[in-house]
Design a protein that fits this description.
Largest sheet: none
Number of strands: 0
Number of helices: 11
Helix content: over 70%
Order of helices and strands: HHHHHHHHHHH
Shape: globular
Structural class: mainly alpha
Radius of gyration: 19 Å
Distance between the termini: 44 Å
């Protein structure tokens, strides 16, 4: 293993420890010493890779985006499965491991506000094209009859990324559930009914974690 690989593994270990702490304790109450202790690395090693806790948080967020993109990209090539089934898999994955879910208590939007703009760009330039690909596959197979796959994919990621994120839009759990129902109705309106009842329930349960 060369030095670059060792450095990358060290950064990954630090981010893994930090993600766990941010999700369990919250960003504000997590200290760099907590990250040192949980990661099993020395304080000097931590500061060699990251100059501040905020920088660690940014790296954690960026890592989540990369992992999500790889996951969605992999789903998009599984054309033998229905779009509806793949969207249920995606919803389950996002609830379990997305920045908004796993890092909810880290309040990353406030701590790294510029990351919100980067998140939107990532959703539109990375995730939306994969969703569009899946919608087009559904059109070709006859599963859906959507004639605006590009636009529907982009609107969908924006609604999920912003409108149904309690970190960005403060609202009651009941209102959030209504928003999820609206998204399902929006998809149906454009003949892109790819959210099953199971997927809707998964999303609502995921949103509910913010209110526990």
């Amino acid at each position: 293993m060369n030095q670059a690989e060792k450095s990358e593994r060290a950064r990954e270990a630090i981010c893994l420890a930090a993600r766990q702490l941010f999700a369990e304790k919250g960003y504000d109450t997590t200290t760099m010493q907590d990250i040192v202790r949980t990661s099993g690395m020395s304080k000097g090693a931590i500061y060699h890779h990251f100059s501040s806790k905020q920088e660690v948080l940014r790296s954690v967020i960026e890592g989540e985006w990369r992992h999500l993109n790889v996951f969605v990209e992999d789903l998009a090539v599984q054309s033998d499965a229905s779009v509806t089934d793949r969207m249920t898999v995606l919803a389950t994955h996002m609830v379990a491991s997305s920045p908004q879910s796993g890092l909810g208590r880290a309040n990353w939007v406030s701590e790294v506000p510029e990351a919100l703009l980067e998140s939107l760009r990532h959703s539109l330039t990375k995730l939306a094209p994969h969703l569009e690909q899946m919608l087009r596959q559904g059109m070709e197979s006859g599963e859906i009859g959507c004639i605006f796959p590009h636009e529907v994919a982009e609107v969908l990621v924006l609604l999920v990324d912003v409108w149904v994120d309690p970190l960005i839009v403060a609202d009651t759990y009941e209102r959030m559930c209504q928003k999820v129902d609206f998204i399902a109705a929006f998809l149906e309106r454009f003949d892109a009914q790819v959210l099953s009842e199971d997927a809707i329930a998964v999303i609502k349960n995921g949103v509910g974690r913010f209110y526990e």
